[in-house]
Amino acid sequence: MTARKPRSVSLSASYRAVIDLLVAHGALSRADIARALRLSKPAVSSAVANLIARGAIQEVGVGESAGGRRPILLRLGGAGQVVAGVEIDPKFCRIALTDLDGQVLEMHEAPLRDPREDAVADLVADDLRAQLATRPDAMFLGCGIAVPGLISADGDTVTYATTLAWDRVNLRPLLAARLQAPVVLVNRGKAAALGELWYRGRAPQADLIYIYLGTGVGGGILLNNAVHEGADRAAGEIGHMIVDPRGPLCKCGNHGCLETLISGPAVALRAQAAIKAGRATLLTQWLAGQSLDVLTAKMVADAALAGDPLALEILEQTAGYLGIAVANLVHLLNPQLVVLGGPASRWGNLLLEATQRAVQQRALDVPRRSVRIVLSQAGDVTVTLGAAAMILRQASQLLTAGW
Ligand SMILES: [Zn+2]
Prior knowledge:
- With about 400 residues, the protein is α/β, with parallel strands linked by helices.
- The chain folds into three domains: about 10-75, Arc Repressor Mutant, subunit A (Orthogonal Bundle), CATH 1.10.10; about 80-195 and about 380-400, 2-Layer Sandwich (Nucleotidyltransferase, domain 5); about 200-375, Nucleotidyltransferase, domain 5 (2-Layer Sandwich), CATH 3.30.420.40.
- It has 15 helices and 16 strands.
- The protein has helices at about 10-25, 30-35, 40-55, 115-135, 170-180, 190-200, 260, 265-275, 280-285, 295-305, 310-335, 350-360, 365-370, 380-390, 395-400; strands spanning about 30, 55-60, 70-75, 80-90, 90-100, 105-110, 140-145, 150, 160, 165-170, 185, 210-215, 215-225, 225, 335-340, 370-375.
- The strands form four sheets. Strands 6-5-4-7-11 form a five-stranded mixed β-sheet. The protein has a five-stranded mixed β-sheet with strand order 14-13-12-15-16, sandwiched between helices.
- The radius of gyration is 23 Å and the shape is globular.
- It binds zinc ion.
- Zinc ion binds near residues 240, 252, 254 and 257.
- Zinc ion binds near residues 240, 250, 252, 254 and 257.
């Protein structure tokens, strides 16, 4: 291998390259940056000094030594520039502010009382304005907004979101006009996958699949640390993987999609049917004479955690279906990591271990041995962090635009 000469690039291009690299990797030393970008050490030192002076980069301690002096690590951020990450759910809206390194500075949750697009855009814009008003010196770079639905190729429109009853909703321009700032729309499962990667320190994974388990079931696939979009940005619709062709009718028109078998409403329905059939359960006491309609998946999860046999049986069935889907994904993509997240991670190790057992039964030995099936580490911030990461991918352009 011949030694490559350092490249010479314009100052603003080297600023952007340094920022892009830190967005992708988190904390790095000056030597790491010089090596990765094939820039000379003086060029990196000069770009870094300028970026520190502008408040875009900060020194954050020392890294491991490769022989000599331990290097000083740099990362983006501080409170000088902020971005927003937003999660829209049929039941709530979660809004976070992060710095350029994805550190969550603040997060709010508000109930989503009116799911119409103007009301949602108003809710997000009003909440963000209130959060930003407490940081008058911060420069707001933009907002990533995650929605449980399909996003159009131009990124302007939620083409389809069954749980919100949205059909071709132009959310991006609505919100951009209110915020007077760049906005990126992203599918919630994809945002969650990216959020999980960021929460885990952005260390490269040989492919990560995130499965969002809530009122809807979605997913995101990261191949080589990048979101796999597919030809129509529709990759990762794990909720519509057909796992039982004789199963319940899905909103998409098929029968037995994963979502119809393991979503929150599906779990609640299964419990309601068992109680109607006369099964004894803690849930009957908890309902205290109220209608079966008030029964939720959260109550079933709590009953399972309390050892209720019916709830545990429902959990086992649910994990069985999830296990079929995970085994299919393991065969198809041979991933290193499958992350289970969303509200159903409330079932914790009960859900995890039952799913692992189901995958153990069904998946081929070789890909099964290398896959780790885990619960989300990031919890509530997963989706908002991933949505913020979507706008942070443009940080170098947004930051240097006015320089
Ligand atoms: Zn479906």
